[in-house]
Amino acid sequence: EFEGDVSHHVLGAIARGTKTVEYYWLDHWYNVFRFLEDDGSTRLWYCNINTPPDFNGDVLTYVDLDIDIVVQPDFSFQVLDLDEFESNAARYAYSKHEKEQAQSALDEVISLIDGRQFPFQLTDFSVPSVVQIA
Predict the structure, then answer these.
(1) Measured in whole angstroms, how far is the alpha carbon of residue 72 from the centre of its chain?
(2) Which of 8, 25, 34, 107 is deepest in the core (most CB within 10 A)?
């Protein structure tokens, strides 16, 4: 749940209290945030291409590689910030492996979207007010 109002250049206004369901895989180079409407229906999905996360106790960390994908409920999507990825790849000397993994992750996410595979499915959620990670 967002603690404060956020303004995003593509998503627009994200009001305080907006709920998301977030999906992280420890062996994948992406994560997916599913933004929910108040009734639990999907507002959109926001995908980040990033290094596989590290989960240490109760802290999850990863390096965001700038490439994002915004997916609408009709499964149309827009890939964002490829130029930022290229710029930062040069600036931070991303390895060939990192660049290949980022492209592979982008291709995989697009394939999941096109195939309506998890987590890109239109299932309404009953969202708890507090989520605990055990």
Answers:
(1) 13
(2) 34
Q: How far apart are CA 31 and CA 64, in angstroms?
A: 10
Phi, psi of 81, rounded to the nearest 5 degrees = 70, 30
Instruction: Write the CB contacts of 126 (distance below 8 Å, at least 6 apart in sequence).
Output: 40
Burial class (CB in 10 A: 0-12, 13-18, 19+), 130: exposed
Global pTM reads: 0.85
pLDDT at 125: 59
Cα separation of 60 and 39, whole Å? Answer: 28
CA distance 99 to 68: 15
* CA–CA dist 119, 69 (Å, integer): 14
Q: Give the Cα separation of 33 and 62 in Å (integer).
A: 15
Strands of the 30-36 sheet, one edge to the other: 19-24, 30-36, 42-50, 64-71, 77-80
